Amino acid sequence: MIEIVRATSIRQIGEASALRYDVCVEVMPMRGIANSARREITPYDVLSRTHHLMAYDGLEAVGTLRVILPRSRAESESRSTYGLSMEDSVSFSLVPPGWKVCEIGRFAVRPAYRGTDVTRLIYRELYGILKDNDIDYFGGCALMSTNDIADADRCFDILQKRGLCTNGIWVSPSGAPEPAASGPASARADEEIAEDAEFLSLPALVRYYLRASFRVCGRPFYDDRYDRCFLPMISEPDSLRFVRFAGRTILD
Predict the structure, then answer these.
(1) Which of 66, 86, 48 is CA-nearest to residue 175?
(2) Helices (H) and strands (E) in the chain, counts
(3) Three-class secondary structure of residue 65 per DSSP
(4) 51, β-bridge pairs
(5) How buried is residue 76: exposed, middle or buried, by Cβ count under 10 Å (0-12/13-18/19+)?
(6) Which helix H or strand E contains 81, and what residues bound it?
(7) Distance (Å, rounded) from C-alpha 127 to C-alpha 9?
(8) Amino acid 174: pLDDT
(9) Residue 163, CB half-sphere, CA atoms under 13 Å: how many?
(10) How many CA atoms does the CB half-sphere of 43 hold within 13 Å?
(11) Under a CB-based contact definition with an 8 Å cutoff, are residues 83 and 70 in contact?
């Protein structure tokens, strides 16, 4: 039976970082990940406002998701808007006043457990955290299957043309302000997406997040730490209620 817990110990956080490392090495080898400790860990992992959601099958860690809540007003000296990991690469140039934004990422599920109930249960726990903390938006940067920014920009052009960019919030690489793209103001999972050849040409992870209610909130950028391009994406907590994971919603 799958159990979802919020990591509270150094041991559990270590298990999360080891699982992330295993999945990254197996599925998407990226420069900057490999190390002798076989751990994928960053300073954001040990912040008091970071939650590590862990899925266990017995004693085995089989899935994990990291949630970084926004910093408090007392931490306002920080150069970033919310103190999120993604702000190392992008800056929020359009945010509704007073709205709270958090980041999710480092999502990893062991291959044998993909397509099972693990993802749905993790996202159900995520939904509780988002609602408990009055989060308005949650997002992150989706890995793209290219290190060529021109290819990444072509994907962005397809998404923008199809109205899959949000105008409710926007981020810009390197902190350069940029106007919001045209598109729906909120991301809804029950919007119909035509999955034609053009849509299927998009990176698999981007397609996954689009189906899970996320919309694009900025142009792609290249990160030399991983030798990959990334695409900023965002969603709203209540959109999770409509998403189906292996045929079931988080409310089932």
Answers:
(1) 86
(2) 5, 10
(3) strand
(4) 67
(5) exposed
(6) none
(7) 22
(8) 62
(9) 10
(10) 5
(11) yes
Which segments of the chain have a pLDDT < 50?
175-190
Per the document, the length of the chain is 252
* Beta-bridge mates of residue 63: 55, 109
Interior CA angle at 143 toward 221 and 160, to 5°?
A: 60
DSSP string, 6-25: E--SHHHHHHHHHHHHHHHH
HSE on the CB side for 61, CA within 13 Å?
23
In the chain the beta strands, taken as DSSP E runs, fall at 2-6, 50-57, 60-68, 90-94, 101-109, 137-143, 170-173, 215-216, 221-223, 228-235
* Angle at 176 (CA atoms; ends 170, 181), nearest 5 degrees: 35
Q: How far apart are CA 205 and CA 190, in angstroms?
A: 19
Q: Letter for the amino acid at 190? A: D
Give the residue from 1, 133, 109, 132 showing the smallest Cα distance to 59.
1
Structure tokens at 94: 């359009």
Gap between the Cα atoms of 249 and 252, Å rounded: 5
Please indicate, yes or no, whether the overall pTM of this predicted structure exceeds 0.85: yes
Structure confidence by residue, pLDDT tens digits, 199-218: 888 988 899 899 889 999 99
